[in-house]
Amino acid sequence: MLLWSFAVSLTLAQGAPAPAPTPEDLIKKLDAAPDLKGRDKPFEISASLTRLYFSQGRTKDAQVYAQEALAAAEPALQFYLEQKKKLGATPPAALADAKCDPEKGQEATLANVFAVARKHADGKRTAAAVTCARKALTGVPDVLLMDGNARFLSRDFAGARAAYDRVATTFGDVPEALYARGSLTLDENPDDVKALESAKRDFEGFLAAAPNARQGRNARALLDRTRAGIGAGGLSKLTPVPAPAPPPPAGMPALDPATIAAFQNAPKTAEGDARFAKLIEDSEESLAKGRYQEALDGFKQVMPYQPDNPRLRAGMAWTLVKLGKPMAENVWRVASGTPEALDALGDRLKAKGDGDGAKALWSRLAETVPGYAPKLEGKR
Questions:
Q1: Mind listing the pLDDT tens digit for each residue in 21-60?
Q2: Is residue 255 one of the residues assigned to a domain?
Q3: What CA–CA distance (Å, rounded) separates 380 from 361?
Q4: Domain boundaries, position 62
């Protein structure tokens, strides 16, 4: 069940009309739902809630839903580990051979695919059981990483490490856990040489497994600094690197106090909205033509006034990615909370002649939000 349809069901239960909600309406609807936290929900709903609240900077709420999602996934996680142990050194079955699809008419949810894995186990088909259990758990590493990231942001380093460790030890195909754990180690133990050696191994493992990953540039820079720190006896012995300003909760670029005061006091008018819409349109035109800094300058004029505009976030995120800015990953994460807006930006880029850019955007979106990938078939 999609998250928006879950919100619609809540609306229907309250006797109200049920139009498809915007992301802002969705948050309001979910916040107003009585006893939503703790209510029995399938893994997919809790995982979507985790992603939604985390993308909006609501890390405490994200952690609550992450724990609900992981509790729902725990039987499948334990089953996966047991079957892997039973399989030993024998490789799992190829996905095409394992026949993991649930019965006709059933969605490929964690629960339904897990049921297929258990049938394989009952039939002593351990290699197929492992493969299908891993397929059932497809969304679990992402939830664990979000939980770890939320804990990291709240300075719960032990909790963050436990989440990253679990991804790394349970799944051998999620190198992002190594990158996250290595970064955490640098924050937690910057002058412990043994810890730095561990971080070095994590960064090296990440780059070996995912050399072309989006975090590759940062991972290489962190690896170089880690190696230098090991040689110097600690990171504090190195020439200091200016710390970046902390990002605001929603993940958008930081503003100075004067700008914040200006946009908070600015009256909203139809003329102003029309001007902002034109600025966004012109910035998208610049983006399509490869004039990235010009596009960024235009988007930044609108951002203080419409920070929650999904179209603006999409344009800002893709522009920062194209410019290779340090904050690109953070802003992209926020924008991907509304994948439809990024998808639509791809359509507009293609219409404006930037077909290659549109395909690159759709490919990145499919990787970032796997659940949305089917809607991008034929576009990438």
A1: 545 567 677 777 767 887 888 999 999 888 877 766 678 8
A2: no
A3: 9
A4: 3-140
